[in-house]
């Protein structure tokens, strides 16, 4: 973040955007692009109505840089947590779907086994009955 802040404050960069996967309820993630650095609105007009002159100690620049650094680190951390949550939700959804598909395949195989077993028993019974009728 220090390099980004340095290039932003030296006006080498106008704005920096953060791209991450946001978490949505239901386990779906959505790619988002949010402004990361671009404080033009905050710094544009300090003479508007309701503005006040504040005294900063030690000075405005050091307080601003300290708060900016903490703010940006927090923003990155929250974005990482949201991306990780989105990934875990997607994995959980995929595993749930895989489990349901596995159970469906297992049910189909049980049905096939029972039909095959029933056909074998029916065939053997018909062979016994036809053999008994030949003897009589």
Sum up the structure in keywords.
136 residues; alpha+beta; two-stranded antiparallel sheet; 3 helices
SSE topology:
Layout: H1 2-9, E1 16-23, E2 29-37, H2 40-44, H3 60-135
Antiparallel strand pairs: 1-2
Characterization of this structure:
This protein has helices at 2-9, 40-44, 60-135; strands at 16-23, 29-37. It has 136 residues and is of the alpha+beta class. It has one domain (2-40, 55-129). The chain has a two-stranded antiparallel ribbon. Strand 1 (16-23) and strand 2 form a beta hairpin.
Quick summary of this structure?
The chain has 136 residues and is of the alpha+beta class.
- List the uncertain runs: none
Number of domains: 1
What assembly state would you assign to the polypeptide chains in this entry?
A: single chain
| Largest sheet descriptor | 2 strands, antiparallel
């Amino acid at each position: 973040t220090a390099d980004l802040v340095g290039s932003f404050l030296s006006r080498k960069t106008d704005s920096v955007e953060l791209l991450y996967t946001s978490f949505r309820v239901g386990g779906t993630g959505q790619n988002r692009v949010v402004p990361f650095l671009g404080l033009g609105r905050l710094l544009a007009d300090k003479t508007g109505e309701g503005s006040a002159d504040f005294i900063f100690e030690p000075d405005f620049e050091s307080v601003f840089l300290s708060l900016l650094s903490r703010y940006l680190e927090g923003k990155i951390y929250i974005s990482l947590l949201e991306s990780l949550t989105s990934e875990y939700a997607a994995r959980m959804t995929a595993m749930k779907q895989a489990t349901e598909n596995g159970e469906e395949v297992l049910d189909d195989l049980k049905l096939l086994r029972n039909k095959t077993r029933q056909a074998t028993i029916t065939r053997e019974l018909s062979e016994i009955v036809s053999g008994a009728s030949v003897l009589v």
